[in-house]
Every structure is written in structure tokens, then in C-alpha cells.
Amino acid sequence: MPAIVWSSEFELGLDPMDDTHREFVDLVNRVTEFNDGQIGDGLDQLIEHTIEHFAQEDRWMRESGFPPTHCHQSEHDRVLEVMRDVRGHVARGDLALGRNLIKELPAWFENHAATMDAALAWYVSTTGYRATAGSGTAAADAKTGCGSGTAASCGCAGAVEPASCG
Ligand SMILES: [Fe+2]
Ligand SMILES: [Fe+2]
């Protein structure tokens, strides 16, 4: 039984987003089967996917003028920070922490897709903005991690401010 079973509930009506989410689900399912010697490599693959996955959504948020951009982007930044932190622990021999993170990803994804990503897909569909695949060249320039607003003030349930935002 795969860690995440793809279902129509994950289809949010934005083709490049749905394609990326399918890739994420496939990757998590593959990495879940990795043995101890492959965990570090699995996390590297997950981080590589997630950088592009999040940068693509961050670009759509900026370009479409999505109102709770800060909130959603902060959540992306926080998750990537956790992944990189855990990767460091795995490199130092703490494989259990790596396994734990991989085990937590399905529940995180189901919640994130159903809330923040669903809101973005809905907003994009109502504005007529054309969301194309790819992170774009400008993806890195606005990734400060901390903007002028706060997660608490932007009305996104479940958002967590990165620790670095104080
Ligand atoms: Fe997503
Ligand atoms: Fe997202």
C-alpha cells in the first residue's frame, strides 16, 4: 500500500499544479520504500522536487497578485527549512529522523493541498491568470522568507511562521 494514494480530491483544476502534485505523490511513495542506505538520497530527491514545486507556486502567487501570498510562501519556506535541517541530521547518522519526516509528509501534503494550494488554484481560476509550468527565473529574487505581514494576520489556518521571522 503506497504512503499516499492519489485520488480525485487532489485534483484542484490547475493542470500544472496537479501534475506537480502527482510527481510529489509518486516521489514520496518511492522514497518511503527506500532502505537505510538510500534515505539520504531520497531526501535529496524530495528537496530537489520541493524547491521547484514551491518556487512554481510562489511565482504564480506573485504574478497573479494572490492576497495571502506571504502566508502560503512562509509555509513553503518553513517546510523546506525543516527538510534541509533533517537532511543534515541524516548526514550525521540520524536515519530515524529522516524516516519520521518522510512518514509525516503524506498528512502534511493532504492538508496543504486541501487548504493553501486549493485557495491558490481557486484564485487563479477566478482571475484568469495563466499559470504555466516552471519556477521561472524570478523565483529566487523575492524569496526572503519574511515579508511585511505575518502568518497570524493573513487569515490562513494552519500556517506556521518560520522561526527566523521572529
Ligand atoms: Fe503544492
Ligand atoms: Fe503550496
Low-confidence stretches: 137-166
Return Rg in Å: 16 Å
What is the overall number of helices? 4
Class computed from helices, strands and strand pairing: mainly alpha
| Largest sheet geometry | none
CATH superfamily: Hemerythrin-like
Overall domain count: 1
Structure overview:
The chain has helices spanning 15-32, 39-64, 69-91, 95-127. It has 166 residues and is mainly alpha-helical. It has a single domain (11-127), classed as Up-down Bundle (Four Helix Bundle (Hemerythrin (Met), subunit A)), CATH 1.20.120. The chain is globular, with a radius of gyration of 16 Å. The chain starts with 14 loop residues before the first helix and ends in a 39-residue tail after the last helix. Residues 137-166 have low confidence and may be disordered. The protein binds fe (ii) ion (2 copies). One fe (ii) ion (FE2) is lined by residues 21, 53, 57, 117.
